[in-house]
Amino acid sequence: MQQGLGDLDELYQEVLLDHYRNPRNTERLDDPTSEVDAINPFCGDEIHMQIGLYGDTVASISVTGQGCSISQAAGSLLTEIVDGRTTTEARELRELFREMMTGEEVSDEVADRLEDSLALQGVRRFPVRIKCALLSWSALIDALDKVAPTKP
Ligand code: ZN
User: Fold this and answer.
1) 45: CA distance to ligand 1 center in Å?
2) Contacts for 87-94: CB closer than 8 Å, 24+ residues apart
């Protein structure tokens, strides 16, 4: 990848580039339960996130934005693991992701839960880019905090 990330594992680079070039779940929701904008001023990254809750489940999610490849790939990767989860599970995933990015050992169980987002693990060796990877996860928490989910 560009931007001095040449040390990242090749397979992980491919995952990130694929999500950067072909981001998933970018279609805007007609009637989002919550939406937020998040910016990372250190890098100029922008994320716009919409979520649609059904009861306590994230039934739909959309992420668009602009900025560096890490921030945009992270947003796309996030949508894949958060879609269909409960709000509680989504918050747990954010904690696991943050722990991974701040240097915690990643157990097999955590690796399973983070799925392809594991590809961002190598970014923690580039401290200035960690905020890029965390941006969309912060947006998710903001979006969840804006709504009091109704029970189905
Ligand atoms: Zn960035």
Assistant:
1) 5
2) 87/53, 87/56, 87/57, 87/58, 87/144, 87/149, 88/56, 90/58, 90/140, 90/144, 91/141, 91/144, 94/137, 94/140, 94/141
